[in-house]
Design a protein that fits this description.
alpha+beta; 354 residues; 8-stranded antiparallel β-sheet; Membrane-bound Lytic Murein Transglycosylase D, Chain A; globular; 3-stranded antiparallel β-sheet; 24 strands; 3 domains
Amino acid sequence: MKKTAILIIFLLSSILASAQDHEQDTTKQPNWFERVFLGKPVIVHDTVYLFKEYDEEESEDEEDEETSGGIGLPIDTLSTQEKFLKVILFDNGSWMYYDVPKPDLPDFITNDHWMTNQVHAYVDLKDADLPDEVDLVLCDSLHGWHIPGEGRIVSTYKMRRGRKHQGVDLGVPFGEPIYAAFDGIVRAALPPKLTGGYGNVVVLRHANGLETYYGHLTQYIVETDDLVKAGEIIGYCGSTGRSTGPHLHFETRYLGQSFDPERIFDFQEETLRDTIFTLKKHYFSIYSHEGQSDNESQVASKQVEPKHVTHTVKKGDTLSSIAKKYGTTVKKICKLNNISEKKTLKIGQKITVQ
């Protein structure tokens, strides 16, 4: 009788977890039952389910354990003050700690151009500093991936109204979750007053040196130096910054240089194009995009990009805030405009920033 009752409780909890998984997780992952029968610890949303493969020789011992008040069936998981430490509750009133695996990231990724108070970090690199070609491992047995937002592309990587649109805009509804595309660490999580057109923005740096940007968020729920796992919610979609409506502005950058995110993700199918991505130097051109042959991309990259971008000074603008907004330096702006770093700016004044 007791075995029957336990079986019924297990089946009910399985169906409930499966239904929850189906309603909230729309990515193409194995279903709950498939994950259970893998025989490894898994996390279904915020609940950790522990199990082991069935062994007939141990069944009698397990029955005795259940009868004597041993570890029962997991029914809930509680968060603790530590992000990667959970408390598992069992149906017999017992509990235990569970260490959630942390992203495995090398220390050196935070040693180079680790700037936390501005959007762009690699503002001092020159074209000669960039590699002609580099292979980036996007995911493997230790590192996963996730579509950053669930929505179709509403604007691509291209020149737009005389400006470089250095990412893709995804039509994610207002307030919907935004996810970390890969395992990584938060380099910057900044409000609109520090980011200009990006609005609320999160910048993640990943193990392969890639950085991903998530702009126009209504709010972010991570902080600088936080470790994040692929698929973890880092904020919610909004329309902050230079935006005409709710959407996610998503960028992929390497050493500060942007390239078409569609080279990595097929946003329509919500899939990763490959586990290893070969990034070539000519991809950094705003005219180079997914769908071109290698030769077409090289030809396109030779098009002359706009030489100068100007900024109209607004109330509260300083040379420092303008430099941060456009990913440049005060020294470069002063050189372009032949002005001193102590120059007093006037509202309405136009200055060249790029």
